[in-house]
């Protein structure tokens, strides 16, 4: 079984590219602190390369930035290629099946980032600048302006 679960922070902004068949692919790396300190009493980190495909790749590019915290569910993949000097290079990376947005760098330092910082977070969908609408493609969390009434009186039991 090849299954990986990781939680870490982006070390750089995601890079989005498109394959020859126009399939989106994003790459980024995350830093994960180790649970122990080294002999100097310092906590070390591991830096893991992540690859994500299709619509999720576009979402990662649009809503994550360096410092954002994410949870990754995926698999380890190894590949090799020949560099410009003819040397064989090996790459180990995690191909993400799911990327959960956990928080921004600012939210780790301040629980109320919107009060002190007008920078968008991964959860901002432009509510204050854009009118509410029904375009689920661009904003699946949009408020359509209508409420749903639920009553226990209508249950059959």
Q: SSE order in H/E notation? A: EEEEHEEHH
Q: How many alpha or pi helices?
A: 3
Label the structural class: mainly beta
Helix percent reads: 10-25%
Average predicted local confidence, pLDDT: 79
Q: Within the CATH hierarchy, at the fold level, what is the topology of the domain at 4-104?
A: OB fold (Dihydrolipoamide Acetyltransferase, E2P)
Task: Summarize the main sheet.
Answer: 5 strands, mixed, barrel
CATH class of the domain at 4-104 equals Mainly Beta
End-to-end span in angstroms?
Answer: 45 Å
Strand neighbour order, sheet with most strands: 1-3-4-6-5
CATH architecture of the domain at 4-104: Beta Barrel
What is the total tally of β strands? 6
The whole-angstrom Rg is 20 Å
Could you give me the name of the CATH homologous superfamily of the domain at 4-104?
Answer: Nucleic acid-binding proteins
Shape: globular
Strand content: 35-45%
**Low-pLDDT segments:** 111-136
